[in-house]
Automatic annotation (TrEMBL):
GO terms for molecular function: DNA binding. This is LytTR family transcriptional regulator. The keyword Transmembrane applies. InterPro entries: LytTR_DNA-bd_dom.
Amino acid sequence: MKPVILPNLGRKTVSEPIKIPLTLETIQRFGLMALLLTAIYSFLTISLYITHFEFKKELAAKLNGWYVLICLEVTMIIPEMVTLYGLQKLLLIYHRLIPIRSVRLTALGVGRYYLSLLPLLLTVFFIISPFTQTVRFFLEVPIESGFDALTFTHYFHNFLIGPYVRPVIVATYSLVIPFLGYCMISVSLIRDFFVWRDQQKKSQVEERQIEKVANYATSLTVQSNQGQTVIHCSEVALITSDSPNCLVHHLQGTYKLCHKTLTEVEAMLDPELFFRVNRGGLVNRTFVDGYVHVGNNNYIVNLKPPFQHQTVSLSRTRLSEFRHWLEVSVQIQFHSPSRF
């Protein structure tokens, strides 16, 4: 059986089948499973009313009215909720004891996973029946026969032991419980697949970002009065054009980057860290302290100490992109141009 090949998941080889980690978070959410059971029960009940309406009519007459029949129909789902709760807990325990932590994403792998659950699903009825039938006894008997029928003998023979010796009940639950269990497992498996796929995509994006960052320069070789020196880009606050060179404003002073245009330097640096605020300047996000409006639609970028005295103009055409680059909502302060 060939493994399922998923596109765009960054897999270099397909010789080894993909494994989906099982979180079982959907099964753990009893409310969601109860909603699923309610939907199935409602569908079956409505179908019976449509296909066997005369039978339901006769049954309502025997129970002295439709109200009693409807109350009985509604209360019948409560014992099944007990069965569902037991099924949920047994599935979680079973996965923990085996243990089953992942499923191969192949037809054979999924088939084996489903088959491994069959022994449990076929025995759930025999484990859970006493609890289900006890709840059913206290809910249905008073409606059908009155409170006088709540006797231990009736409970023991008809509810506690009775279901095990009635082939119809055993056969019904032997079909219904596996069907419900596989519905729960299928929903949970589909949800786990999408979670796994999203994690794979997220990991790929992070890997691409790491590779992308690795291609950018982390240091620059610059010229000082003492000769050439190497400085870290993370310690550079500002790079300005000084044709045909560039001036690098570093924590230790101002250096010259020879024979490099600002456009060439911009291509060397990580755009997540450096932003070109105008034709003649690049700023480092680490040292940006916001920006101010100085009138006439002019803006100036504020830098953190020791570069707070640098005047860095922000091009109006780049304002929107600059805001997005900062990824924070910077409140624009309005000052008079005379301050600058």
